[in-house]
């Protein structure tokens, strides 16, 4: 999904950091480390449940090797990954600034967006290592994305590393921010697992919200230029986002890692569910249609 070349970007929309060294996540047991490793391969990880009682590390450097100085146009977004992240965030801001008040009667507030490269990063939800994929922290309303994730996505999960696949991942994390603004994060029990758990329902709703963004992305304009942020996606481009959603299904990850599937341990939903809810949002553009908490478990 390409950005129109003449849209204007603000490089300051994101913060960049280089990680510190040697952060510890969770309790340190072998099972805990394994669980974190498996979850790290899934987009949309919410670390508050894993790290809720842990203080943020104090040694993370704020200097960064991620250069965003060239990220001033859609042309740059089509050329550089870090610029694409900025353009995606600005497009998401514009879409949700219109749709959230219009559909839910709730004002939109931009989340922070942190691009980082290194071994660890400090958040209000605790310290995360570079093994953890993109995640949203409700405690500081920030989306965190390790820039190495996209290079690992294809080899580890079997997902195609394409622009729209990358944008879907960011849109999913912004979907968690929308949930936070709507009170979902504070009203659900995301500590449990299983195919019918609040954890799965939360993740599937964020997938649906990512689809809502795709629905409006090619018609929502850059306020600086009056030009739509994105070119209408082709069916081939949409297929790559669907491929990314399939690749982060719990069943797909379990099959690749252990050769078996256990739905009792699911936290994000199956590949089929993730694709279906993403598609629901993309085709309907409706937040109401994304209410995964209103359907029976058999309909998830």
UniProtKB/TrEMBL annotation:
Residues 255-268 have a biased composition (Polar residues). Residues 249-268 are annotated as: Disordered. It comes from the Bacteria. GO terms for cellular component: membrane. The keyword Nucleus does not apply. Keywords: Membrane, Transmembrane, Transmembrane helix. It is a single-pass membrane protein. It is found in: Membrane. The keyword RNA-binding does not apply. InterPro entries: Uncharacterised_pept_Zn_put. Pfam families: Zn_peptidase. The chain crosses the membrane at residues 21-40. This is Neutral zinc metallopeptidase.
């Amino acid at each position: 999904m390409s950005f129109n070349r003449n849209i204007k970007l603000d490089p300051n929309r994101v913060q960049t950091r280089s990680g510190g060294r040697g952060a510890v996540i969770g309790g340190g047991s072998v099972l805990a480390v394994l669980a974190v490793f498996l979850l790290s391969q899934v987009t949309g990880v919410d670390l508050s449940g894993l790290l809720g009682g842990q203080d943020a590390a104090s040694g993370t450097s704020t200097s960064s090797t991620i250069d965003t100085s060239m990220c001033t146009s859609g042309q740059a977004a089509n050329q550089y990954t870090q610029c694409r992240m900025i353009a995606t965030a600005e497009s998401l801001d514009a879409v949700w600034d219109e749709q959230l008040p219009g559909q839910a009667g709730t004002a939109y507030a931009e989340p922070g967006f942190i691009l980082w490269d290194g071994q660890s990063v400090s958040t209000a939800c605790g310290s995360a290592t570079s093994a953890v994929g993109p995640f949203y922290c409700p405690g500081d309303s920030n989306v965190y994305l390790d820039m190495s994730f996209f290079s690992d996505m294809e080899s580890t999960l079997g997902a195609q590393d394409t622009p729209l696949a990358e944008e879907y991942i960011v849109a999913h994390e912004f979907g968690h921010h929308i949930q936070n603004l709507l009170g979902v994060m504070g009203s659900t029990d995301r500590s449990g697992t299983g195919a019918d758990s609040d954890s799965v329902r939360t993740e599937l709703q964020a997938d649906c919200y990512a689809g809502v963004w795709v629905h409006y992305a090619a018609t929502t304009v850059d306020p600086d230029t009056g030009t739509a942020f994105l070119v209408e996606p082709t069916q081939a481009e949409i297929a790559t986002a669907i491929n990314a959603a399939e690749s982060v299904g719990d069943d797909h990850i379990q099959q690749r890692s252990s050769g078996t599937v256990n739905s009792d341990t699911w936290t994000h939903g199956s590949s089929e569910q993730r694709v279906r809810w993403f598609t629901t949002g993309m085709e309907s553009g409706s937040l109401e249609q994304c209410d995964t908490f209103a359907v029976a478990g058999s309909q998830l």
